Amino acid sequence: xxxxxxxxxxxxxxxxxxxxxxxxxxxxxxxxxxxxxxxxxxxxxxxxxxxxxxxxxxxxxxxxxxxxxxxxxxxxxxxxxxxxxxxxxxxxxxxxxxxxxxxxxxxxxxxxxxxxxxxxxxxxxxxxxxxxxxxxxxxxxxxxxxxxxxxxxxxxxxxxxxxxxxxxxxxxxxxxxxxxxxxxxxxxxxxxxxxxxxxxxxxxxxxxxxxxxxxxxxxxxxxxxxxxxxxxxxxxxxxxxxxxxxxxxxxxxxxxxxxxxxxxxxxxxxxxxxxxxxxxxxxxxxxxxxxxxxxxxxxxxxxxxxxxxxxxxxxxxxxxxxxxxxxxxxxxxxxxxxxxxxxxxxxxxxxxxxxxxxxx
Length: 360
What we know:
This protein is mostly helical. The protein is built from 12 helices and no strands.
């Protein structure tokens, strides 16, 4: 039997990783429905397992969960997307006027600072003209992109695949999830299987604990902000609330961005009725209190977290390398890389490279 040296094994696994990344890059244009199917299946697997424990078969549990998830997704899309797109378009068109009104309100407050710094006066007419031009460019670019997507055969195929193929992929992955895990486990190199299983368990804990928990926190906060801002009568409250919730996985950033947008809109819309501005501030205050005292402790707890800077880097790197598919897998990959880095640091501290040749 031929003995393979450790260096040869490292070269083999590095070559396999390079081939995998190359295939991921080459097939990037058609991977979206499959990646979305994997993500959805991973999130829904605990529900299927719970139904199995209640006595349902794996197939029936998978069928029930998949059908229910599709119905919920369709219902939410039909309820939210039309008003969301309408508000977003109106916000882009109205953005120059609202910005000028806001600048007119805060100009008396910043004039003393501007004079001390010898800065030129702010021209509201020039600001409005510039912002109107930019808003028109944004709408033109959005229209051009939509037109190209409609004309592009591959993009149209991806859209159809996302709508019709993703539920099928999700169903089969959910049904065969345990078989896939067993097959992967059976293919592990035997002398490193225990270490790989340990790292896989820690990676799953990081993804399940942090990513699933943070996703639920973002959905909850987005719903709270969108509903709350809409109830207090803030224009574009649905869009602003959903934006704030969507980026709440970065601590304080989602709330800060959403609060700045909402309060800026409130300062334009409500004064001299300052009660409306107070109501908007209360919505974000309540959201922060719920996040800090209820949502994050219950949904995320003390599970393995990721540093916000590492999350932002992962999202930018994933998007730059693999587009929207890269954005989808960026945070889970970042969680796995974090586990591997901690393992390598632990191995390094136990080695002679760290302890020295004379260490016992």
